[in-house]
Design a protein that fits this description.
Order of helices and strands: EEHEHEHEHEHEHEEHE
Largest sheet: 6 strands, mixed
Strand order of the largest sheet: 1-2-10-7-8-9
Distance between the termini: 19 Å
Strand content: 15-25%
Shape: globular
Number of strands: 10
């Protein structure tokens, strides 16, 4: 896969993985595929991993199954995951704990492989770090959004001498040595001060208000998806 496209926006170097189908996670989720034919993920309705799994599984000739809470109307990302080839299993009254339990139960019966929550695994972190190392110029300061913190930890592996900032959009992430800042919006709400380029509203876009106020010129922001 080609290295990330980086462009400068308002003095910040931005990794434009919004230009990649399925975003950054789609680049690397194949590192979690093995010999099994089907891969399963328990996703929040707003999550982007479901989209990445759909695209990556299709490219690898695997089956993707996404468990998600049933809603009156499917979230746009669930619809995109289905359009990319994922089978969607809606769980009624689906608190996330229930969605995860249903996914585990399905895998125990079907023999499908359950992907880890947040795609948090050494293989995924190594794959993300390898992509980061292909960026032409090593940054001194790096900004990203952290759900699980997997991306920030991978970037720290790739660029051990850089300073890191991670914007938490939900529960406190496992973000390694990054300075963690909490986004004021609820996870399900879109960013109130989004960047001037396509960015996932309830995720990456929430970093921009902090970057505008605190980032040093030439800092790098990793925009995971649109």
């Amino acid at each position: 896969m080609t290295p990330p496209h980086v462009e400068t926006v308002a003095g910040i170097r931005v990794v434009r993985d919004d230009l990649v189908l399925g975003g950054t996670k789609a680049r690397c989720i194949g590192a979690l595929f093995g010999a099994r034919a089907e891969y399963v993920y328990a996703s929040p309705a707003y999550g982007y991993a479901q989209v990445a799994l759909g695209y990556a599984a299709r490219a690898a000739g695997k089956r993707a199954t996404v468990f998600v809470a049933k809603r009156r109307e499917r979230h746009a990302r669930t619809r995109e995951a289905e359009a990319a080839g994922a089978r969607i299993v809606e769980v009624p009254f689906g608190y996330l704990s229930v969605v995860k339990a249903e996914a585990r139960r399905y895998c125990a019966v079907s023999g499908a492989a359950l992907l880890p929550w947040g795609l948090d695994s050494p293989a995924m972190i190594d794959a993300l770090a390898s992509v980061a190392r292909s960026v032409s110029e090593q940054p001194d300061e790096v900004w990203s959004v952290a759900g699980s913190g997997v991306l920030s930890r991978a970037l720290q592996l790739a660029w051990p001498r850089a300073r890191f900032f991670a914007i938490s959009v939900g529960a406190v992430p496992s973000a390694g040595r990054a300075t963690v800042l909490q986004a004021p919006e609820r996870f399900e709400d879109d960013a109130r001060e989004p960047p001037p380029f396509p960015s996932c509203g309830n995720y990456d876009a929430k970093a921009w208000r902090f970057i505008r106020g605190r980032a040093t010129p030439g800092a790098l922001f990793w925009n995971v998806a649109a």
